[in-house]
Amino acid sequence: MSNLRDKINDRMDAVQHYMESNTHLKDPHTVIEAIESVSKFWSVLSDEDRDYLQVANDAVADGKEWRVQK
Asked: Which helix (H) or strand (E) holds 40?
C-alpha cells in the first residue's frame, strides 16, 4: 500500500505545483490530465485530497487564478 500512497502523493504534488504556478490558465489540458491521474484513486484518497482536487478542477473549468493563502 505504501507504493500506492507514494504514487498518489507524487501525483498530488504535481497537481499542487501546477495549480500554484497557475499552469491551468496557460495549459489546462495538462492540469486536467494530472487531476484525472489522481482521481482514479478516489476510493483511497483522503477527504482533504478529494476536496483539493474538486476545487482545483473548478478553478481549471472556470479559468480562475489560484491564490495560496499564507
From this structure: none
User: What single-letter amino acid sits at 51?
Assistant: D
- The pTM (predicted TM-score) of the whole model is 0.91
Nearest-angstrom CA–CA distance, 67 and 43 = 28
Extents of the domains making up the chain? 2-62
Mind listing the pLDDT tens digit of every residue in the chain (70 residues)? Answer: 679 999 999 999 999 999 999 999 999 999 999 999 999 999 999 999 999 999 999 999 999 999 988 7
What CA–CA distances, in Å, run from 10 to 37, 43, 62, 64?
11, 17, 25, 24
